[in-house]
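Project standup — Tuesday

K.O.: blocked on the structure for the chain from last sprint. Re-posting the sequence here as requested.
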Amino acid sequence: MDVVFSAMRPTGRLHLGHMAGALTNWVGLQDGYDCYYSIVDWHALMSDYADPSRLRENSREVLLDWLAVGLDPNKCSIFVQSHVKEHIELHMVLSMIAPLGWLERNPTYKDQILNLQNKDLSTYGFLGYPVLMASDILVYKAGKVPVGEDQSAHLEISRELARRFNNFYGQGREIFPEPETLLTHYPKIPGTDGRKMSKSYGNSLDIADEIPVLDKKIRTMMTDPARERRTDPGEPEKCPVWDLQKFFNDDASQMREIPQGCRSASIGCIDCKKMLIAHVTERMTPIHERRARFVRRDGELSDILAEGAKKARARAGATMSEVFDVLGMLKL
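H.V.: unblocked you, prediction finished:
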């Protein structure tokens, strides 16, 4: 099977934006691909090195959310990045051939520097994060990486580094495949205030939020600003609640009724939210039940990560043996 790699930084509990934008796709991919899903704790340290006090707990929360939404350790490899030393070994190798200009021109790097001004990001580690990202992917010789169309540019440095390594050391053969984007549809899941869902904005609907908490948050969500009164017509495409309906509501008749009722003011925002809450409750209840079962099983969580790391090390180790060989390094 084709190899797929993807990862998330452990910054705490995940929200419905993560579930809609990535995890639902990951769950589907595990049945048709050889999938490696990593909690990338080294990446978390690149921006939060000053305070790693919650890193261990955040990694556990991410794992619980992954298992809750349906990632199956019998179908995919789930592991922590730092448990597989080959990530760092390949990072060191690729850092030798990564031109500084590539990293300094990286648009994501420039954007983060501008937007995260409360953190000191003027470090070698942060500048070089795309090299570590490339190592994460290439060490498994992953042919496909699931991303949204707007994120496909993020893979370009990985592709360029694979090409550059092959040109230097391949001697006519391909050591690393150039990873392809596995384009997936990422639904728009806004936060309760209409902005991008983010913990830093305080507007997130978390996967782990119990139903009464989700109910309360949804009831207070902003809607189309034009609907100041119940009798005012609205436009669904301007309403964050409608974006959530498109992900959670699988009732075809309601999905026809809601936009018509919004535009004609025959359905109020409260009515729309009540329908959404019913579908969120139906979808999230089994997810919460799975999460609760794993919360009480620390030993099982450790076993899942240990087995995932074992599988990952086997593949990554074979890759690094080949890398050390073409680099002409001495063997024990």
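K.O.: great, moving the ticket to review. The chain has a mean pLDDT of 93. Residues 192 and 221 are 5 Å apart (CA to CA).
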